[in-house]
Amino acid sequence: MLTIGQVASYAGVTVRTVRHYHQIGLLPEPERDRSGYRSYDVAAVVRLIRIRTLADAGVPLARVQQLLDAAPEEFADAVEEIDQGLRAEMRRLRENRRRIARLAAGESLALPQSVLDYLRRLRGLGLDEQYIELERDAWIMVAARAPDQIDAVIAMKQRELDDPDTVKLYLLINEGVHWSADDPRIVEIVDVLERVVRRAVDAGEQGDEALDQSFVDLMDRTVVESSPAGARVMALLEERGWKGWTRIEQVPPR
Q1: What is the pLDDT of residue 222?
Q2: What span, in angstroms and rounded, lies between the C-alpha atoms of 236 and 94?
Q3: DSSP percent split of the chain into helix, strand, coil, nearest 5
Q4: What average pLDDT does the segment 101-108 reach?
């Protein structure tokens, strides 16, 4: 007869593990002898080895009992099911590793490649990193809110950058982040923005229905809070018959 220490040693586990298997019902707990010690037989070692083998293979302990008591055909079906689950978990872990590997790139963690390319193009215009971060954070929210539409929206933004007025607008906004609300140069931002918006309206390209109004309102508030000039720009736009920033719409002039 064997002691609990010997059984654990033969099966390649710890005594604590054997006791745990007793507690959860995987390994029957033998009666104590007259001296108060538990005595194990070879069958206990074999069962413990089978338990350990299944557990090491990734079988949840909750399923081990079912497999130990299963008929051959049922055992094969259960193992196949577990194997499919393990393959799915491996795919998930591989994807997680790819995402973690992208952490070093910072912004790439939550953005599709189309947005990364767009931000790279903005950097090429000479925009400050502070402004790039504002754009990045906005696009992170848009990509999360409308993942199916983000590539199409960015494609439109890329086309807009072919327009010299749009490039000028970005350069002005890049500087305007640091302006006070009463800076006279804000009027130039509004002038250029109005030209860009009017052309978009005339071309039938104005308006983005991918985002709901509550989200648009949130984005507009972010613009206002990000720079003292933001609220002034939107106020001047409204005086000229336009409303909003994320989705600029024509309204009756005041």
Answers
A1: 83
A2: 51
A3: 70, 5, 30
A4: 57
Predicted local confidence at residue 159, as pLDDT:
92
Instruction: Count Cα atoms within 13 angstroms, Cβ side, for 181.
Output: 10
Distance CA 13, CA 27 (A): 13
In this prediction, what percent of the chain has a pLDDT beyond 90?
Answer: 31
* Residue 47 to residue 104: CA distance in whole angstroms: 47
Dist CA 157 CA 153 (whole Å)? 6
Full-model pTM? 0.56
CA 216 to CA 233: how far, in whole Å?
17
Residue type, 69: D
Give Cα separations from 181 to 178, 185, 232 (angstroms): 10, 10, 6
Q: Which residue has the higher pLDDT, 34 or 254?
A: 34
Judged on CB neighbours under 10 Å (0-12, 13-18, 19+), 226 is middle
Better-scored residue on pLDDT, 178 or 33: 178
Query: Would you list the domain boundaries of the chain?
Result: 4-102, 106-250
Is 176 exposed, middle or buried (CB count within 10 Å of its CB: 0-12, 13-18, 19+)? Answer: buried
Measured between alpha carbons, how far is residue 97 from residues 90, 92, 103, 115, 131 in Å? 10, 9, 10, 22, 30
Q: Which amino acid is at 187?
A: V
CATH of region 4-102: 1.10.1660.10
pLDDT tens track for 61-85? 888 888 888 888 888 888 888 888 8
How far apart, in Å, do the first and last CA atoms of the chain sit?
A: 97
> How far apart are alpha carbons 38 and 28 in whole angstroms?
11
What mean pLDDT is reported for the chain? 85
